[in-house]
Structure formats: C-alpha cells, structure tokens
Amino acid sequence: MGKVVMNASVSVDGFIAAADDDPGPIFEWLVSGDVPLDSGGVLKVSQTSYDHIRPYWDEIAVTIAGRHAFDITDGWDGTPPSGIDHVVVVTHRPAPEGWDATAPFHFVGGIEAAVTTARELAGDRTVEVAAGDVGGQLLAAGLVDEVRMDVAPVVLGSGKRYFGSVDGLHLLEDPDLVIPGKRVLHLRYRVRR
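and the corresponding structure tokens:
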C-alpha cells in the first residue's frame, strides 16, 4: 500500500494562499527556472527542483482535495492536474450539475472515505493530499504519513493556513530531505507515530 503525503507550496509564515485564495508569489518558483516540469512547458523550474519534483509527481496516483479547491479550479476542467490518475473530492454535496460522470473524479462525504477510496485507486503508488483544511483534518486523524512543503521566500501575513484549522499538537520527525531550489526550499518530514 502506498503512502499518504500532504503537500503544497507555502509561504515562510505558513500560508498556502491569501484569504481570497490568491496564492500571490508562492508559485513563482514554478516559473523561475529553465527546465520544463510539465509536458506543455508552462512550468519551468531549476534543475535541482526538477530532479526533486518530477520523480515525486510520477509516483502520485491520486490527489485528495476539498470541494473548495475543486470549485475554485473549476474541477480542473475534468482532467486531474499534473498527470495524476484520479482526484478524490471531499464534499457533502454531489458532483456539479452537468459534470462528466466518466471524468476520473470521485466525490466522497468524509476524510476516512476519501483515504479508503484513494488507497484503493492508488494501489502501491502515492496518495497526495492537498494542504489546507482537508489536509489538516487528515493529519489530525492520523491518516497522513508524510508532510512535504515547497517553501517560497514570501511572507503573506495572513490567509489560508497550510494545516488548515488544526489546533492540536502533532509531531513530525526531523526533516529527512532539505533541498534548496531557485525561489523555493523543498522540505520533507515523516509524521511521528
């Protein structure tokens, strides 16, 4: 069975976007290099970031996201982002009216159902969890194995927190990966059990 990884780009003060969902310069690192990261060549990163991110992206089979992320991205137009096979959307609402039922999106009513569905779909590949409220809920429930952060050199001051509204203590192991890239610091922590 694959691992469950919480991941996102984040400001140094712990925000994934402003209150209005604008990420500001948090994603600047994804266009600050000269090595194409995606097939369209829109994302260009440093070689160091490419060597770290591309293999990770290739191991992800499923992303778990909340309904808010689904809605603000317009459901990624029915195509999972970054070549991912499936998206599991945590929501208490049905799929949008007119949604293509053949799109590889799965709408579930809670975090436990999301992880169960995602693990079944992923097999032995990685399940990625979008940071924010849903990611924080999974961490608090003990359902996350690893936390990855792409830390951008920006201070937002306020906004959407990386760990959402988690208010309890959760321990992580020492970072086992620290990679400086252009306009980003890539970090990885295992969740202490």
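(Above: one complete record from the training split.) The first strand starts at residue 4 and ends at 11.
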